[in-house]
Design a protein that fits this description.
With 507 residues, this protein is α/β, with parallel strands linked by helices. Among the domains are: 31 residues, no CATH class; 137 residues; 63 residues, no CATH class. The protein contains 11 helices and 34 strands. It has a 15-stranded mixed sheet that branches. The chain is globular, with a radius of gyration of 24 Å. Bound molecules: zinc ion (ZN). Zinc ion binds next to helix 11.
Amino acid sequence: MKKICKISKKEFEITKKDLEFYEKMWVPTPTLCPEERQKRRLVWQNMSSLYYRECSATWKKIISNYSNDKKFPVYEKEYWFSNENNTLNFWKDYDFSKNFFEQFKELQNIVPRFSIQQQEPMENSKYCNFASNCKNCYLIFDSDFCENCLYSNVLKNSNNTLDCSYCHDMQYSYSSKNCEIWYKLFFSSNSINCSESYFLKNCISCNFCFCCVGLENKKYNIFNKQYSKQEYLEKIKSFKLGKYERISEMQNFFKEHIKKFTENKLEWRQNENVSWNYIYHSKNISDSYHIKDCEDVSYSQSIQKAKNCIDTTSFWENIENIYESATVWLNSSNIMFCFTVVLNSKNLLYCDTAYSSQNCFGCIWIQNEQYCILNKQYSKEEYQKILPKIISHMKKTWEWWEFFPINNSPFWYNETLAQDFFPLSETEILEKWYFYKQKEKSTIYNWEKYIIPDDIFDVDNEILKKILSCKICEQNYKLTELELTFYKKNKIPVPRKCPNCRKLERI
Ligand SMILES: [Zn+2]
């Protein structure tokens, strides 16, 4: 079956399998193409734009992914969870003379949220968002169980690792993506169980290899050519990899080398009936990527241990029957059109952030609640009576079975993952009537330009006091002591791009 997307006007396909899912979940076929549906979800995810601001209750200085110019109150986390705060004090009666998204927005503007998404225990890692169980980490996002890790996203169970995306079980590694089980890996992608190597792609169980593609169980290979141990070590030394110019040159050589190989099947692992890449130990997966241990999933991204999900982003651990939602964690099921649903939540519709809640509709930042509508408490009987009336009202306003419109997001478009994956210029954002976050003036400094030495050997601790400027976006950035030690120890030149540009390059 073919349909035309309401926004992009592009034709998109609805498969027989999709139709079975929609029937099972009692939903009609979508009105938007998969890309527009994904964009509508991603605009709710601001992982990495962090700000200093004040807590709206205690006036303490806090770090938050909500900038000061947002209308709603933002509390420090301890205060939000304290007895002083009850988000059911902010409620609305459903108004059948208005459309639902408008009423929801009004409620969004008054309900308090907390500053940053961190699950304890967290130690010395205050600049991390959507993170749990981290120690001594800095600017890592959507990451868990990490120690001494910096500037990474979707990094799990790793230590002493910098600039990595969609990786797990990494140690002493740098600038890599889609890799697992690594020790000292640099500038690599789509590889597993390797060590002491640079520039690998699609490799399995390789050690001491340089600029190689599609190798398995190899040692001392350079550009897929076998060398003796002695020759290998001499050649690597002669490359002088601590120099920025040499690393850039090698990056270009490697890009050319990759072109000699056809796309490798290693990217599909232990799967049954899957399309697309970056899918592991899964069954019946279509039009999705970064999927692990899942079954019956379509049009989704970054999902682990989930079943029967369509149009979903960022889910993990025992998740089932989800449609058009983002960020759902830990034992949650029957969730539709929701953002951030955590821990044993069930039967939620159109909610923005719910902890351990069940049978709620249109609620905002609730915890341990049941039978609420627009944050107002109802009895079970009342809830069951009013919900069908709301649904028939929303059918009349053409809102039912649609995820929230982009401007219902609490973030501006260019603060979110939507900007990372579907980048728009300021003019394009404003032309579409989306909200645009202006760059804060204080982030651009006038300073004496510091020339970073080409060779890491010539860089000393003085650099830690310097403000550097990204060669792509001109955003200022600084080095931390932890990263300078890492660069020196591993003979890696200081990056000339800011952490955000480096991330965009990786993803
Ligand atoms: Zn930059």
